[in-house]
Amino acid sequence: MFRAMPTRILLGALVSAVVAVILVIMSAWVAVETYLSAADGIALPAESVQACHADPAGWSEHTLGAVFAYGYDRQGTSLNPQAFPLPEGAAAVALAKGTWTGDQGDARLTVRRTGDGGPCALIALSFHPPMEGVVAPAMLTLLAGIAITGIVVLVLQLVFTVRPLTRRIARLRVSAADVGTDAFAPPVDRVRDDLHAIADVLERSHARIVADREALQHRNEALERHLAEIAHDLRTPLASLQLAVGEAAASSPGGVGTPMDRAVSDVAYVSQLVDNLHQATRLRLGLSPAESDCDLHDIVERLGSRFAALGRQRDVSVDVSVPDDPVKARGLPDLAERALSNLVHNAVLHAPSGGHVAVLLDADDTTFELTVADDGPGVPEAQLASLQRATFLEGNVRPRGTGLGLVITNEVARRSGWVVEFALQEPTGLRVTVRGERRP
């Protein structure tokens, strides 16, 4: 096995080059043999032999533009003074075997026996290339050999180098696309080269990513649980603090806007924030509000009483209207109360001094509709869509942590099957409507 891809490619190219050279040499040899052997097949008419015997001193023939013929006796001597001398031993071989073929300078020489004696017992034909009718077939043979060589080299490169590499690279590409996911499958590669090393790196990277992801998930879950425990532990002392500050504010002299009123507002804000953190952690850990039912009638009445006290500290009236009968809806009671509490709290915070907040719950046999409206400054119309899309991944919509409350409201509504809509009031203010299915 080869340890590196360059070695594998180099060896493939070397083998292809050797095969190409061998095929070209063989093609050229076949072409030359085809070219030179043309003289061996030239027929000598009987009339030419008779003409040689009739006038051996003056007879000669020049045919096809390249073949010269002269007569010789058994010793290889010609009576024609223009005849070329025969190579040594050529006459004896021709007499014994009937023909002799060889080279004489740049000519191809063939000596044939035509009789047992006389001045034309042997006739020699000298072939001087080029020669019409012979060059063309020889060149075609050479070109065909070169073409076959190129095709063979391409096929060898494709079969033994290109296709195996492309298949292995394709398997690596598929595996690389799934690294870090459950669909990842290690690429099977038995050749010990650079691609095999890349496959090993992908497999190790996948294992490391999965391990890091699981460790990060465990750390996040532990942090979420720790945050939930802290928020839960803070709820009781904050409730006592809010009650104590409220009683102190009620018994202190002065009107709206005193330091005690601001303390009540700040304590309410901190209490809301801690509870939102607690419920957000529960939601991130996979809590499903749709697995239970809640009574919106009781929740809205409690919210009215709670925020009426906060509204008095801010000189904001909070009015609540609910049906006489219970209004059951899908959702966990504490999560539903937190989601609706965020809406009422935001309305009280943003209502002006002397303003008004209305909380209206209405229901028929199959659906309910809860409306929270205030006469505060509202929000720019371009932000209405972002209020409705706010999720755990969105930034704060309103300052001082109320953006988290809106995220929790939208998330609880989504998991409970509710619909939350935001609209501007006329002339000022914001109206939030929550709709959903009424449970029997």
Structure commentary:
The structure is a single chain. The protein is an alpha+beta fold and 440 residues long. It contains 10 helices and 12 strands. It has helices at 5-36, 46-54, 90-97, 135-177, 194-251, 259-284, 296-313, 333-350, 384-389, 402-416; strands at 61-63, 67-72, 99-104, 107-113, 122-127, 293-295, 317-321, 328-330, 356-363, 367-374, 419-424, 430-437. The strands form 3 sheets. Strands 1-2-5-4-3 form a 5-stranded antiparallel β-sheet, with helices on both faces. Helix 4 (135-177) runs parallel beside helix 5 (194-251) and helix 8 packs antiparallel against helix 10. It starts with a helix and ends with a strand.
Question: Topology of this protein?
Answer:
Layout lengths: L4 H32 L9 H9 L6 E3 L3 E6 L17 H8 L1 E6 L2 E7 L8 E6 L7 H43 L16 H58 L7 H26 L8 E3 H18 L3 E5 L6 E3 L2 H18 L5 E8 L3 E8 L9 H6 L12 H15 L2 E6 L5 E8 L3
Throw out a few tags for this protein:
12 strands, Heat Shock Protein 90, single chain, Beta-Lactamase, rod-shaped, alpha+beta, 5-stranded mixed β-sheet, 10 helices, 5-stranded antiparallel β-sheet, 440 residues, 3 domains
